[in-house]
Structure to design on (713 residues):
């Protein structure tokens, strides 16, 4: 309900829109931080974390943008670009010439002179003597809502209807808090937390919006920049030079004033330059230092800002042209597989002739701008970027019109196959939980082969699920290759899932047998060593020891211990210690890791969740005690199991114990459900044995149907 007002407020005061004025940007950044802190505290306070507020009175000051000619803007983006371009090729920002576009598109056309601002102030206040306690949870939310309404009203972002609804919500909440209804509970409390039917207050929506839309831009990592193609390396550089440049960036990225070149690609080369190789690009030498980089930004601040504005304007134009084409022609996407500079002219041509494209039926597809006209087997239509005139476009459409029905069918089938493939991969990921699964790493496969591969993985998913695959990646490859060291399974499109399961079982069984043999060998070695030590001690007692034999035997034992100890680097333990270890951790050898080397394909099997037998630790403890798990095998020459059987039989046959157990159960039920609402003591032994049940007929009596009189005959 409040999202429209909150979004309008965000777009008027966001610090990124004030990059032309550092003082205004700083004021709004500080106000954003204050508001974020206040909303986070209020949200936690509402949820039950009763912390004191940052302050009982907080004054907020924002600069907001003022747009005077919103209603006079032309809706044609191309016309605005033609009329508002200055001699340098950068779009101008006159209020009367700007088109009606999104707020982020406006950022590209704003100049330091063109944006007008106004100062708004509002104050958040809590009553005097406020204490962070449970009764004040509603008071905090109403105070924050009142402050937010005042802030939105001063920013001219909230209408009277929405404001009155918020006031009515707060008044109703205050009345419920003062005099809670007896029979009608709060409708918001009936909805579970997080359900879509739960009503959200102004505080809730403001907290969500500030987390999702208004978070201040943080410095990304070097990996994120490279994934977004914002760091480009020149082909003339050696690998060593590229590594040095990337190391410098990784080490000092936080000190390079990222906010000044945020949306500009960084090109690593052997010289300094701005906007030469790529539109909006920043070229730096590979051996730059952070001081040189910051100095270069400072000395060329105007050129960098101008280049950044041009790049933002160019990107915004391309984005808006693609968006409007997709909306008008119901396209899924417009791909660009060539230079964006060349593609802009073709995009403008297509944008001007949207009605012509619609008339020829070029709809419900995906278009691609490339170096030639073509049609793909998956239904994508490729357009040559060399096409510049409407006449060429019309001739191409006439030649293509006969194939469009087939292309739409191919595209629909391909899209359905892709969606089915993604569904099977998602289900496989949920079942097996691998480190990764990718059916698109190999571009030589067709959609049908990818779908077959995903279905086969989905089919054998339950058989693979009881192993731990969290570090393994399943990839679609041209041929079968299982790389245990890199933890990758490359499977061809026609792989046999059952054979894969058998192979994994054999690997696991072989690893288990190998581990078992190693354990048996180590155990035998320890036993042999203990026997030799006992023989040696006996021989020394009899003074029959041979010095040379002692030295050779000691050397042999030491060599055997170093070659194959139970734990590498640890000497074998004594017989007494080994027995103590066995008593303290029985059957531990069965649960040890299944391989003796570090490169272990499947080191630990996943614990079986369905094998949990007990409802609680107490129940498990009682069961183990009953089975005599913690007791010695014999006590006073009588087996422990017999003693437990006697005790169990005594408790079953003794009336007092039965009554005590029933009383304990009754007390637990009454403590859970209350004593007055339900009575549990009405059930007698006759009810348990069904003596008092009218539906159970005694033996030897005629079967009587309830509600029917027996016949006289």
């Amino acid at each position: 309900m409040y999202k429209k007002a909150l979004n309008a407020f965000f777009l008027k005061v966001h610090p990124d829109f004030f990059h032309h004025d550092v003082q205004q940007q700083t004021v709004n950044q500080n106000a954003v931080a204050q508001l974020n802190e206040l909303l986070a505290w209020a949200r936690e306070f509402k949820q039950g974390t009763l912390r004191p507020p940052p302050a009982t009175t907080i004054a907020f000051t924002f600069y907001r943008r003022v747009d005077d000619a919103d209603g006079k803007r032309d809706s044609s983006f191309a016309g605005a670009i033609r009329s508002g371009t200055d001699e340098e090729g950068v779009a101008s920002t006159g209020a009367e010439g700007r088109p009606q576009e999104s707020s982020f598109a406006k950022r590209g056309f704003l100049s330091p002179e063109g944006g007008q601002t106004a100062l708004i102030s509002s104050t958040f206040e809590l009553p005097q003597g406020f204490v962070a306690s449970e009764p004040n949870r509603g008071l905090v939310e109403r105070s924050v809502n009142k402050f937010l309404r005042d802030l939105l009203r001063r920013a001219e972002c909230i209408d009277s209807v929405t404001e009155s609804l918020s006031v009515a919500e707060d008044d109703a909440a205050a009345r419920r808090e003062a005099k809670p209804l007896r029979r009608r509970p709060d409708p918001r409390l009936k909805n579970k937390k997080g359900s879509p039917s739960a009503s959200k207050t102004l505080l809730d929506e403001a907290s969500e919006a500030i987390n999702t839309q208004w978070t201040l831009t943080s410095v990304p990592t070097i990996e994120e920049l490279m994934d977004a193609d914002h760091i480009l390396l020149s082909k003339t550089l050696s690998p060593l030079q590229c590594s040095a440049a990337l190391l410098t960036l990784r080490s000092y990225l936080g000190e390079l004033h990222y906010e000044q070149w945020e949306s500009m690609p960084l090109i690593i080369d052997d010289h300094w330059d701005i906007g030469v190789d790529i539109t909006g690009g920043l070229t730096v030498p590979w051996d730059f230092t952070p001081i040189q980089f910051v100095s270069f930004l400072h000395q060329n601040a105007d050129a960098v800002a101008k280049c950044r504005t041009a790049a933002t304007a160019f990107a915004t134009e391309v984005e808006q042209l693609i968006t409007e084409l997709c909306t008008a022609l119901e396209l899924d996407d417009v791909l660009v597989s060539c230079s964006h500079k060349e593609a802009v002219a073709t995009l403008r041509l297509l944008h001007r002739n949207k009605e012509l494209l619609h008339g020829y039926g070029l709809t419900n597809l995906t278009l691609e701008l490339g170096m030639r006209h073509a049609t793909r087997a998956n239904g994508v239509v490729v357009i040559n970027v060399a096409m510049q005139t409407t006449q060429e476009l019309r001739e191409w459409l006439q030649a293509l019109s006969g194939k469009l029905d087939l292309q739409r069918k191919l595209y629909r089938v391909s899209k359905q196959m892709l969606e089915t493939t993604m569904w099977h991969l998602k289900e496989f990921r949920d079942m097996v939980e691998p480190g990764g699964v990718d059916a698109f790493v190999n571009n030589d496969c067709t959609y049908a082969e990818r779908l077959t591969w995903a279905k086969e993985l989905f089919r054998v998913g339950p058989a693979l699920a009881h192993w731990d695959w969290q570090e393994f990646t399943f990839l679609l490859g041209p041929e079968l290759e299982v790389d245990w060291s890199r933890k990758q399974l490359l499977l061809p499109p026609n792989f046999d899932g059952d054979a894969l399961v058998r192979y994994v079982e054999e690997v696991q069984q072989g690893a288990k047998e190998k581990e078992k043999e190693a354990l048996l060998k180590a155990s035998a070695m320890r036993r042999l060593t203990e026997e030799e030590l006992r023989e040696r001690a006996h021989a020394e007692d009899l003074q029959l020891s041979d010095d040379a034999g002692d030295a050779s035997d000691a050397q042999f034992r030491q060599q055997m211990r170093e070659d194959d100890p139970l734990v590498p680097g640890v000497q074998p333990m004594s017989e007494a210690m080994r027995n103590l270890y066995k008593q303290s951790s029985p059957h531990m050898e069965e649960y040890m890791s299944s391989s003796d080397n570090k490169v272990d394909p499947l080191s630990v099997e996943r614990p079986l969740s369905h094998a949990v037998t007990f409802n609680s630790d107490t129940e498990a403890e009682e069961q183990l005690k009953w089975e005599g798990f913690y007791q010695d095998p014999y006590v006073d020459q009588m087996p422990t199991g017999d003693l437990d059987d006697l005790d169990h039989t005594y408790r079953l046959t003794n009336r007092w114990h039965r009554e005590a157990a029933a009383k304990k159960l009754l007390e637990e039920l009454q403590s859970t459900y209350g004593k007055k609402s339900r009575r549990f003591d009405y059930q007698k032994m006759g009810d348990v044995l069904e003596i008092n049940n009218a539906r159970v007929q005694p033996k030897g009596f005629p079967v009587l149907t309830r509600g029917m009189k027996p016949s006289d005959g």
Summary: The first strand starts at residue 57 and ends at 66.
